[in-house]
Specification:
Elements (H helix, E strand, L loop, with lengths): L2 E3 L9 H4 L17 H6 L1 E14 L2 H4 L3 E8 L5 E8 H4 L11 E11 L2 E11 L6 E3 L12 E3 L10 E15 L2 E10 L2 E9 H4 L11 E6 L4 E3 L3 E4 L1 E6 L2 E4 L12
Parallel strand pairs: 1-2, 4-6, 11-14
Antiparallel strand pairs: 2-3, 2-5, 3-4, 5-6, 6-7, 8-16, 9-10, 9-12, 10-11, 12-15, 13-14, 15-16
Length: 257
Amino acid sequence: MLRTTFCIALTVGICSFANAQPVKLDNHVGTTDAWASLVRKGHKITFQGRVTGVLTSKRDLLSANEVLLLVRNADGGGTTTVDVGPRWFIDHQSAKIRVGDKVQVTGTKVMVSGHGMIISSFIRLRDQGGPVLTSRRLNGTAYWVATETADRSQVAASATTIDGTFADFGTYSQDNVIHSSGILQTADGRMTIDLGPQWYYQGQNLSYQIGQRVFVVSGPNPFTVGGNLTVYPSYNIYQGQQVYNLRDTNGNPIYGN
């Protein structure tokens, strides 16, 4: 895979507008979505092409390690720069993009300091049988940002819920991936809830502490790890006015594809 630093892309016009880019990415990559406002206002586009470069932005330029693609348009329209998302998130997805891959990109066209760029929502790898690298939800919000302002009043009365306080924290392994977990003290005793893969949980703006009360929307089917640890899958975890979203309503994790 061709992998280079952000400034080396000067010849294709990336550095020329990146240095003047007014959006500041947080040092803790994944806690913010720097492109959110531009994505909401931008023009949606789908195009096909071949990947000619896979770049990594430097932290001292954008305070983040972003994955960028250079895609030569199949219609002969030149090369387009595509921002895929933070490397810590993209590297943990099952779909891998390499130089030479034929892709179909769906995203939002934005202008940054007079230069056009595509903020990717999802990329279909046509050479690999069609796997999709998904970066954003249908409404444009990033999958690497899992927290938002909300309260539990919107939770359906029929939902499976757990009400308790954090008594401890731990980890467990599932399919060779380390997951974070929280041990809740509830009216029915201690229960272990899933906090997501460790790499994803640590990328969020979360600071759960022992003694904090949380309200968890869980799935109907807890699972067993290591033969004796019962873990309840978390869909949404409410704490104060914040909710940490881990699964959609069908139980599919939002952190991987």
